[in-house]
Specification:
The chain is 3% helix and 37% strand. With 142 residues, the chain is mainly beta. It is globular, with a radius of gyration of 16 Å.
Length: 142
């Protein structure tokens, strides 16, 4: 039996693949907009402290991303890692590319209709801003 990919007129391109370390559950209440973006963070780039109004699923395609959290902890993710960012202002975080190659992320946002994808936040108490600002090191493609 021929595969779906070999069907006449069908073209598919694999953009990114990753493995999740634990189970996956993404829930959204009410009307939800799903947006998929490719995000690139240049070396020394910093996203700024922020949160998302809905959950976000991320696949790290290349580079090494260091995420910092409001409790002072951090997590490092590399190629093939999947990150699930929970929604809400209680999940303030920031991303930093401390490496010497761009970090490339494929991000699926599950956001309430009409909401921004990312909401800027103050650096949490005891957490210092780090790296360049988002405008200096972050590139997105819609």
């Amino acid at each position: 039996m021929p595969s779906v990919e070999s069907a006449a007129g069908l073209q598919a391109e694999l953009l990114a693949t990753g493995k999740i370390r634990s189970g996956l559950s993404i829930a959204a209440a009410g009307p939800t907009e799903i947006t998929y973006r490719r995000v690139s963070i240049q070396p020394s780039g910093f996203t700024g402290w922020h949160y998302h109004p809905g959950p976000v699923a991320v696949i790290v395609e290349s580079g090494v991303l260091t995420r910092m959290f409001s409790d002072g902890s951090s997590e490092v993710s590399g190629p093939g890692d999947i990150i699930i960012e929970p929604a809400g202002p209680e999940h303030v975080h920031a991303g930093h590319n401390q490496g010497n190659v761009p970090v490339v992320l494929y991000m699926a946002y599950f956001i309430p209709c009409g909401a921004e994808h990312t909401v800027a936040a103050e650096a949490p108490r005891g957490c210092r801003p780090t790296g360049r600002t988002a405008q200096a090191g972050l590139e997105t493609a819609a």
